[in-house]
Design a protein that fits this description.
46% helix; 5 helices; 91 residues; mainly alpha
């Protein structure tokens, strides 16, 4: 006999990260790639909802490219990046 399916958690529709935080609907891969290619415009940060940091990247051309490059790499390799609501980005 199969067990009944666990009802979905409305607070975590995409599941829960190992640290107990719910996953975001945003993807860290999409955020990282956007940041690598369009980071001078802050697009990766706009995608995750961090508009203040995105505007700062836009005004500084992504920290002359260095900030955008490092930020994009960190998005791709880190499991602790969050969206504006504090939910962990999905991998």
């Amino acid at each position: 006999m199969s067990q009944p399916a666990t009802p979905p958690n409305p607070d975590a529709p995409y599941g829960v990260a190992p640290n107990g935080q719910p996953y975001s609907e945003k993807s860290k891969i999409v955020a990282g790639v956007l940041q690598l290619f369009l980071g001078g415009l802050g697009i990766g940060r706009f995608y995750t909802g961090h508009t203040g940091m995105a505007v700062a990247q836009l005004l500084t051309c992504g920290g002359l490219g260095l900030w955008a490059l490092i930020d994009g790499i960190i998005f791709l390799v880190s499991n602790e990046r969050t969206d504006k609501q504090g939910r962990v980005l999905r991998g």
